[in-house]
Q: What sequence folds into this?
């Protein structure tokens, strides 16, 4: 898709250009406004001066330089007013702020006050303008003979830090007697070079260029002006923004989940901003899978195993919760209620006698506990009603002792409380004989 004919590049450049105020001065002294998207121009008036260059200050006033003198130019009539003598032989001019312009003269950079045309030295550039000065983001650019020079100033813009060409003479740019910085919608800003009657789009990264408007005015352009554009964030590192990536995605979420901030079913268009400018545009079709629960009622008998939907084995009546994953990877809840089968007996039969004599045979009072019983609580009394044993959770560990001393052979009386799996209680009483 990126391999298109060369004239389509020009068409794309024009379509992405956003209209901004651009004024140019022709070699014959006429002042024109340009509509670059339409490659058209409009005559404003004749200045009757052969200005070397023109420039706005940031407050929208227009200025021109000719024969060491600074003039103010009316942007509606092209009438001019002499401000004063700069003392500088220059053909390039650009704004610094509301009150100051910058110009190059004999490879040096100067500031010029618009109130009286007085000038001051800023620093040495090492290159002479063959055209114009223009701002691109935080740096100044100079069109020299076949080269675009990047000039870096200090933070207060009172000193030249460096000046170097962005392209080699083996790959020259057109000789541009005027330049400005243009805003291109959906793309990075670019330098507009005015060469003869033509307008070029020039990349400040490497000096590559494209002719975008041939013969836009009836005579050669000798100077151009536009207001300084805001600094781009982040600063460009390539001539053009990388092409945005478009994708269509279908996804699903479970109840209670979100995807990139979306919690409801629907179609969403999301833009993911990348550091290199290649934004990703995604169309998301989102489905929502509801949570569901199932209730199962079944039965279980004494000493039976029951396999729950989760695969777990249980052995007694009760309510059990199983969490399973559906084919959509969402949780489903299955509640299983197990009842005791009709005819099943859920009871215990405490032994009537045990022989705690240390022969490891029948030394403990062992009560068989079926699955349907959760807990057995035991109290044992002697014949006078004295408590000789107590357990809140009997584990078949009574060995016929009281306070760690063997009880005498006799009949003892128990009270057993049984907690069933359905959380009901039953009390059982009886007697047990200790016989050694």
A:
């Amino acid at each position: 898709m990126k391999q298109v004919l060369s004239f389509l590049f020009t068409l794309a450049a024009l379509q992405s250009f956003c209209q901004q105020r651009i004024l140019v001065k022709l070699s014959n002294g006429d002042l024109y406004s340009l509509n670059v998207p339409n490659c058209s121009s409009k005559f404003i008036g004749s200045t009757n001066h052969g200005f070397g260059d023109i420039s706005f200050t940031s407050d929208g006033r227009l200025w021109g330089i000719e024969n060491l003198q600074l003039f103010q130019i009316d942007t509606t009539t092209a009438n001019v007013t002499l401000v004063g003598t700069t003392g500088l032989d220059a053909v390039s001019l650009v704004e610094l702020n509301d009150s100051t312009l910058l110009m190059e003269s004999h490879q040096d950079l100067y500031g010029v006050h618009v109130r009286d045309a007085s000038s001051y030295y800023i620093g040495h550039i090492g290159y002479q303008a063959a055209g114009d000065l223009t701002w691109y983001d935080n740096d100044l650019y100079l069109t020299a003979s076949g080269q675009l020079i990047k000039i870096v100033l200090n933070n207060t813009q009172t000193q030249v830090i460096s000046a170097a060409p962005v392209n080699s003479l083996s790959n020259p740019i057109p000789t541009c007697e005027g330049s400005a910085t243009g805003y291109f919608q959906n793309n990075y800003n670019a330098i507009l070079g005015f060469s003869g009657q033509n307008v070029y789009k020039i990349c400040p990264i490497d000096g590559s260029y494209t002719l975008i408007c041939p013969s836009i005015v009836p005579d050669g352009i000798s100077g151009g002006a536009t207001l300084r554009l805001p600094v781009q964030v982040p600063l460009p590192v390539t001539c053009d923004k990388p092409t945005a990536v478009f994708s269509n995605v279908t996804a699903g979420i479970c109840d209670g989940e979100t995807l990139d901030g979306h919690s409801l079913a629907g179609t969403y268009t999301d833009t993911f901003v990348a550091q290199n400018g290649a934004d990703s545009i995604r169309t998301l079709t989102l489905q929502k899978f509801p949570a569901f629960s199932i209730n199962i009622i079944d039965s279980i008998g004494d000493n039976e195993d029951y396999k729950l939907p989760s695969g777990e084995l249980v052995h007694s009546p009760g309510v059990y919760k199983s969490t399973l994953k559906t084919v959509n990877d969402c949780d489903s809840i299955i509640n299983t209620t197990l009842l005791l089968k009709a005819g099943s007996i859920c009871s215990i039969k405490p032994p009537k006698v045990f022989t705690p004599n240390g022969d490891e045979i029948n030394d403990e009072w062992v009560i068989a506990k079926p699955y349907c019983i959760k807990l057995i609580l035991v109290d044992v009394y002697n014949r006078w009603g004295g408590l000789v044993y107590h357990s809140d959770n009997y584990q078949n560990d009574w060995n016929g002792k009281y306070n760690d001393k063997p009880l005498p052979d006799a009949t003892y009386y128990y009270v057993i409380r049984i907690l069933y799996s359905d959380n009901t209680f039953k009390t059982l009483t009886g007697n047990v004989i200790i016989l050694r």
